[in-house]
């Protein structure tokens, strides 16, 4: 059951996503006892002047991780991965070979683990 | 909302079949759902009842679009809104109306979007994320 603080947190997360012109229809935001989970496809709404860049994505999730009610942030995106301390776009391209798809899948798995520990360092983990 | 009462949702959509799905799916989750198949009917319900916890709004409807309804109801009621549409391209900042809505209203964090077709789980996720479960006691909405 989502409690009042989690609803407030969801709202704050959406505020930040909207500020960055993120297409909310392609993402899901869930908060449970201060733990924020964001998953889906990260992209801006149509007509935005510039696409999302790694520094913008980094700043956006940093801002979400710094929200007062957020104790932890878990991000699972199908088109961005956290690799080597940086966000990278990993969109599937037409004509991807099975080998490169396998490599991208491995990168995604790896990024989930790194993101978890990376954000914990930046946000101080569970507060 | 009084504690113990199920959260109340109004859905405005011109497709009767989808309204049936909403009624069935959201009632199963314990929400109290009312529906309107015409924008004007939905606006009237909002004006008369005014105690809805969530408005689910189709974008493309004959006569008055979901965006028109959204702009109109914001003048007299403050309610979280979930846009449900099969046309993601409707949300383009090339439209002055969408840009205004995005900056003036989406920016407060109480609006979300769900694209059709969707799994029921995605619908529940969005509704729960905006207003909580059917019987949540919260002052958020």
Write up what this structure looks like.
The complex is a heterodimer of chains A (127) and B (141). Chain A is an alpha+beta fold and 127 residues long. Chain A has one domain. Chain A has helices spanning 4-19, 54-65, 98-123; strands spanning 27-32, 35-40, 72-77, 80-83, 86-89. In chain A, strands 1-2-3 form a three-stranded mixed β-sheet. In chain A, strands 4-5 form a two-stranded antiparallel ribbon. The model of chain A is unreliable at 93-98 and 120-127 (pLDDT under 50). By secondary structure, chain B is of the alpha/beta class. Chain B has a single domain (8-131), classed as Rossmann fold, CATH 3.40.50.2300. A five-stranded parallel β-sheet of chain B has the order 2-1-3-4-5, sandwiched between helices. In chain B, α4 (96-104) links the parallel β4 (81-85) and β5. Chain B is globular and about 40 Å long. Chains A and B meet through α1 and β1 of A and α4, β5 and α5 of B.
């Amino acid at each position: 059951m989502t409690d009042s603080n989690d609803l407030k947190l969801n709202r704050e997360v959406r505020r930040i996503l909207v500020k960055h012109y993120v297409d909310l229809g392609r993402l899901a935001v869930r908060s449970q006892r201060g733990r924020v989970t964001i998953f889906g496809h990260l992209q801006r709404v149509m007509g935005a002047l510039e696409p999302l860049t790694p520094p913008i994505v980094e700043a956006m999730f940093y801002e979400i991780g710094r929200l007062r009610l957020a104790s932890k942030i878990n991000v699972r995106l199908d088109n961005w991965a956290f690799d080597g301390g940086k966000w990278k776009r990993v969109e599937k391209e037409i004509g991807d070979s099975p080998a490169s798809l396998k490599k991208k899948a491995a990168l995604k798995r790896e990024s989930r683990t790194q993101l978890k520990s990376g954000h914990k360092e930046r946000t101080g983990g569970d507060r | 909302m009084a504690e113990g009462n199920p959260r109340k949702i109004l859905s405005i959509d011109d497709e009767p079949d989808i309204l049936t799905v909403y009624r069935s799916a959201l009632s199963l989750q314990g929400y109290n759902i009312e529906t309107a198949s015409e924008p004007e009917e939905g606006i009237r319900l909002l004006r008369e009842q005014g105690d809805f916890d969530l408005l689910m709004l189709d974008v493309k409807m004959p006569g008055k679009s979901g965006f028109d309804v959204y702009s109109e109801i914001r003048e007299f009621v403050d309610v979280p809104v979930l846009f449900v549409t099969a046309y993601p391209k409707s949300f383009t900042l090339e439209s002055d109306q969408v840009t205004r809505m995005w900056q003036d209203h989406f920016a407060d964090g109480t609006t979300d979007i769900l694209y059709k077709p969707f799994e029921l789980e995605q619908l529940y996720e969005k509704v729960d994320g905006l207003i909580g479960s059917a019987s949540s006691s919260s002052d958020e909405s």
